[in-house]
Amino acid sequence: MESVFLSPESWTAVFLSLRVSLVATLLSLPLAIWVAHLLARGRFRGKQVLNALVHLPLVLPPVVTGYLLLLTYGRRAPIGQFLEHSFGFVLAFRWTGAALAAAVMAFPLMVRAIRIAIETVDPKLEEAAATLGASRWFTFRHVTLPLIFPGVIAGSVLGWAKAMGEFGATITFVSNIPGQTQTVPSAIYAALQVPGRESEVLKLVLISVVLAVGALLVSEWLVRRRRKKVDAA
Amino acid sequence: MTLNVAITTVLKGFDLDVNFAAERGVTAIFGASGAGKTTVINAVAGLHRPDQGTITLDNDTFFAADRGINVPVADRRLGYVFQDHRLFPNMTVAQNLSFAKKARGLRQDGQHHSAVLEILGIAPLLGRYPTDLSGGEKQRVAIGRALLSQPKVLLLDEPLASLDHARRLEILPYLERLRDHSDLPILYVSHSVSEVARLANQVVLLDRGRQIQVGPVTEVFSDLDAAQFLGRDDHGAVLFAKVVATHADGVTEVQSSGGRLFVNQTVSSANKRIRLRIRAQDVMLSLSRPEGLSALNVLPCVIADIRSEAKNSVLVQLACGPDRLLSRITERSRQHLNLQIGMPIFAVLKTVSMAQEAIGFQAG
Known about the structure:
The complex is a heterodimer of chains A (233) and B (364). Chain A is an all-alpha fold and 233 residues long. Chain A is 79% helix and 0% strand.
């Protein structure tokens, strides 16, 4: 009789996916907040160009994004070579590359959610903070950021879910190496290629569903706990 | 502390051009909606950059167009109370109040802190969030927040405009105390004659960006030129008086420099200085001291000026001692009495004509 538990290889894929998606989300979150703030509040030339650039991974076929990553961050590509020679840091065919691919794909979703949240904050509150002697950073840290907290959580969960599910750009950029770059979607895809592994596929699908629903519940709880304290006027 | 404002700036449809100095006490920036009042205090705050001119506070230059000086908002050390309170919704009242202290790294002045809480009556609200406050409470907290930033100038932009009548009456006494107990220059933007009459020491009268007149509230509100820019029902002089006695029938006897007056309201403390607003339509004129009249207040005056108005009426400026009064009569009455400038005349004021909100307290 077949075990009801996941095979060790599948567990590896689950843990790798968690690591890749969490690293991708957490490392790109500050940048996403900064870019969202620039797009929401900034007045500068080239704002539309930045906007288009951020949204590019959302509209490009993921395979194209993955190939572009390979062209820039591959071991023979300019940035890839620079990183390897200067810091010994390799992205291609490593889990770090999977994290980069996931981050790039999740970035537009995070920026969108956070930008919308920033746009709902009345700039007059930031003006009031300035009259009270607050620097821009102090105002952002103590006024804007707490007010956009639900949006930041929503953007993070959305970005994390995208990173968990990212397949096309990942498999193009870092391939599908078990234990190295094989995330849950890649593992499901690989298992589907082999006859007789349908039950393994089902288990991975089940785990994916549980993780996704769990993340939604946690984010709801975080936002609600905050709201109890602050009901934005 | 003297705040000097001399700026010009192009606004939609007209140019704003003002030049005045504000000392300790309330300087009201007064005019109809769209006269450019808020732009004036936004320029002082640094939220609006004028095209030309200078803004200085004693030896500090906030703005000087020709020298390219424009000090950032956060460095000007001023307290700004907005029309729409603008409390931070994510912070309690206590956190809102200490925001400036944290932002500027100020040292806690416990005495000042508790004095502000006391004068505004906001100590019981400290643990609450802005959403749990009434409109009047929010505005009091906003005033407290501005005061606790240890400002050198206080700017108030129609702080009562968003409140109903009852809430206004609740806040006005706090503003009066603020005026009388602080050394700050206070710029107070308003289009309400009754608020300005009650609070202002000095008035800057604006009309479509043009500065019509600057002067003490008693002078501006009794000026016939300034009167053209006020609504007909708003015409009326402001007088200062001192409480002499409170009578058992609820009438308070006060002494103005023009003579004794009876106010149909109980003001408890004797010797208290109050200000009265006497509307032009409530002042009748008589060539001789009237006898057998129900009105209690009769002041001997001299006609200082006469101005014809629309609708066959005339506005008469009276000098009653050093005080000035305005009176509106018909053209027919004027001809009938043959009123001329320089004539002695008696002004007859009905006690009931002094509405409650027209009486303000004044320390000193």
